[in-house]
Design brief:
Blueprint lengths: L12 E7 L3 H14 L2 E8 L6 H7 L3 E4 L4 H11 L4 E5 L3 E3 L3 H5 L8 E9 L6 H14 L6 E5 H5 L2 H4 L6 H11 L3 E12 L3 H20 L6 H20 L4 H19 L1
Parallel strand pairs: 1-2, 1-4, 2-3, 6-8
Antiparallel strand pairs: 4-7, 5-8, 6-7
Helix pairs in contact: 1-2, 9-11, 10-11
Length: 268
Amino acid sequence: MKPISKCSNTELLDATIATLNSALTLERCLESILANIPVRSIFVVDGGSSDGTLEIAKKHDVRLIEERALLGWTRYIQAKICQTEWIAYVDSDVYVYDAWWKNVSRYWKQPDVGMILGFADAPTNNLPIYDKYLKHRAKKEGTVAFSNTLIRRRLVLECEDELRHVHAGEDDIVAKHVKASGFKIITIPEPLCFHDRDPFETHPKAYRRSGRSARTRYGLHGVTVVPNALISMIIAWYNFSRETGRHSLRLFLFLLRLWIEYAIGFLI
């Protein structure tokens, strides 16, 4: 039996979640999707959980696929097994708010839009200004992620070769393809979900994975991405400081730490 959405809407779409030992958050994630997104089916792709994640998924009668793969390839598999024209990617530690569909659905009928996502609230961390920095950049430049994202399914499938060997930065790969294909990415500048993880704790590991993935994509001859990333980080910090009047040395040092993790991931 398929999960039954409590969100009243006649236009159903598939939602998909990637899981790996997600037992602490998956129940609430699934309940938020069923309550707030008009889903036809929910597809869960699990990477080898051992903590009760599978039992939670089965309890909700989702369509479960077990596949140990790098994150980029997992994203491709998620799109492959979904069947609707538009699909909703939701991270296993994301709880979508009741305003999610109302805001996102404003854009999906526009023929030039290919990807839509909203901001996320997050737990208070040890460096609150980092959250302000992320949201400031997102408001200026937009953002890309698969955390609470509606996207045209075929645009992900068209990235098959590039997604095959990456474990981070897969969202950037797809976003570049979306734009290259002539579509817009809409970033809704208000929180539409709660992302139940502390970016201060999780982003360093993510940056190291991103560095490894960059080496996989470009090889050692692409080492220029490392200094370029540092230059971009300094410029972003400077612009944030100038435009907001918040000159935080702690923020600069944390961003430097993220770059070091990226460099280590690329070089080692």
